[in-house]
Amino acid sequence: MMVCEYKPGLEGIPAAQSSISHVDGQKGILEYRGIRVEELAEKSSFLETAYLLIWGELPTKEQLQGFENEIRYHRRIKYRIRDMMKCFPESGHPMDALQASAAALGLFYSRRDLHNPVYIRDAVVRLLATIPTMVAAFQLMRKGNDPVKPRDDLDYAANFLYMLNEKEPDPLAAKIFDICLILHVEHTMNASTFSARVTASTLTDPYAVVASAVGTLGGPLHGGANEEVIQMLEQIGTVENVRPYVEELLERKAKIMGFGHRVYKVKDPRATVLQNLAEKLFAKFGHDKYYDIAVEMEKVVAEKLAGKGIYPNVDFYSGLVYRKMGIPTDLFTPIFAIARVAGWLAHWKEQLAENRIFRPTQIYNGKHEVTYIPIDQR
Ligand SMILES: CC(=O)SCCNC(=O)CCNC(=O)[C@H](O)C(C)(C)COP(=O)(O)OP(=O)(O)OC[C@H]1O[C@@H](n2cnc3c(N)ncnc32)[C@H](O)[C@@H]1OP(=O)(O)O
Ligand SMILES: O=C([O-])CC(=O)C(=O)O
């Protein structure tokens, strides 16, 4: 067997062959099935982009309508799932609630028929349809309210905001939210997608695949950074505090949340679009002083870390967009998951099409031939 050099974090090691998305980290380019993310953000919808990623081609009008209708029809969650969520502690993190709820779906659809296209389609529709409902339901239930039923006359993004806030969203906010979902839907072999593919490679059910990916996304080095960014901006408090704050972090070699990326060595193209979206929202709903702190931070970090390729990533400006929509900070990462589930499912399908179980190796650096010492002699 060929022995490869050990690379911590598997940096630079291909883990799959994939035609789903592509990142050029030097040029700051992201493509979904060959189409630039900026173009999709401008012209497509989240469900159309999800269709493109999962089925490989842009849908025809009829295909898109069929897909949207199927999702609309499956938005409601089972009473037993809702009752289970009611028992979750209100103080628990919504990402944990989402992970448990996504896994629980597998209890209801336990038949595993991975070679059957109908089973695959059902699972895709069910997960895309119910994950937003589960996120909104937990949010209302932890406040002591009953969940709001989905509204069939609202599209994917508007319906989620409606279920979350118990009122119909402003059309601009709903449109911008849909664009945010497009920006977060897929990103090559990131940690949560890798986790999804490893889980998928054991031929388990898609609910377990998504549950393991949700668990991976939540960490602060990955999707969980969007929540930490807002907490950091709040802690900084004023534009004048930015420079000393950044200097202090760098002095103790701490990571600045929302900056840096394994692949991008320039500003993440999604961060640029999100920044523009934040400005559009501010123009209509009023400015946010934390945006000025963020912009100053981008300037100071560029100056302090010049030449290191550390720029804002997708998690830096997204929270400012969600904040302006009145979304609580600890829902930012679940919202990332609502979008990313489509990317995970695209990778699940691709993994199944040419599956081999993931089973890397390790470099053992422990002891050998150790004698067992009975407990009373230790
Ligand atoms: C959706 C997403 O997952 S996007 C990423 C969200 N995560 C964050 O924003 C958390 C902050 N960022 C980070 O922790 C990292 O940049 C990661 C996890 C995104 C990428 O990590 P890696 O590719 O392993 O980079 P690594 O941690 O090895 O950093 C390389 C160098 O850049 C520096 N660096 C990387 N990110 C940062 C940062 N955010 N702040 C300060 N320095 C940084 C490191 O200190 C290191 O410097 P050194 O070579 O002098 O030791
Ligand atoms: O690609 C990565 O490592 C992280 C990322 O930006 C994403 O998952 O969107």
TrEMBL record:
As its record notes, the protein acts as a catalyst of: oxaloacetate + acetyl-CoA + H2O = citrate + CoA + H(+)
Q: Name one Pfam family in it.
A: Citrate_synt
Write out the entry's keywords from A to Z: Transferase, Tricarboxylic acid cycle
> Its annotated pathway?
Carbohydrate metabolism; tricarboxylic acid cycle; isocitrate from oxaloacetate: step 1/2
PROSITE patterns of this UniProt entry? CITRATE_SYNTHASE
Location of the active site: H261, D315
As for family, the record states: Belongs to the citrate synthase family.
Name it.
Answer: Citrate synthase
